[in-house]
Amino acid sequence: MNQTFDTLVRVRYAETDKMGVVYYGNYYIYFEVGRVEYMRNLGIDYRRMEIEDDSMIVVAESKCRYRRPAHYDDLLRVRTRVVVVKRRTIHFGYEILRDGTGELLAEGETIHVVCGSNGKPKALAEKYRRILENKTEKGSSA
Known about the structure:
alpha+beta; Thiol Ester Dehydrase, Chain A; 5-stranded antiparallel β-sheet; elongated
């Protein structure tokens, strides 16, 4: 089974519409918060990855399935996992749950291409690849 990491996020007023419901685009921000904290928990500092290894993980594809609305001041649990790691891509999966009840509010995924500062795709450094591959379902790249 995939190893997941949970990050808590409280819905701020600015993230909602007039009815107090989270605007749909903000779920991608929650995904990013979950992904960055997950990587940090694994010992991968994204900023250092950019500076020391000239590696950025660029979003190439994303999707989100909205199940139930989140509202202003809700405490959300962003559950993040690595789905697949390939030579130049990383695929993350997410669930957004209402903390306390565990109610599934949204689920999604993002696929990232590793690029250098020149914007061209490049291989993910082996030190990161090993860490991330150990977190996938099969424990290896596809």
